[in-house]
Amino acid sequence: MVREGWTDFVGLGRMVLAYPELPADTLERGQLARKRLCRTFSDCTTGPRNGLISGCYPLDPYYKELPEGERLRAIKRSAKT
Asked: For residues 19 and 32, what is the distance between their CA atoms, to the nearest angstrom?
């Protein structure tokens, strides 16, 4: 649709939290890294609901290594019990 000029705007939403290079990869190489796509772990919304910053804690190494990443994992563990 973009290539054919049929659209002016594309919204990507939270998948870009997990894969911020998605637009560039798609436009420059015509393909994307499927393993980096959002798999709806919901950490990007669970974090803010618990006073943490939003980010893709499972897939993005930056967020995974933050102290907030461990705090979020602890919150999820305690929710299971």
From this structure: 9
- What residue has token string 């894969």? 19
CA–CA–CA angle 25, 30, 32 (5° rounding): 50
Write the DSSP string, 31-71: ---GGGS-----HHHHHHHTT---S-TTT-HHHHHSHHHHH
Distance (Å, whole) CA 18 – CA 14: 7
The CA distance from 38 to 7, in Å, is 23
Confidence grade of residue 67 (pLDDT, cut at 50, 70, 90): very high
Overall average pLDDT of the 29-51 stretch:
88
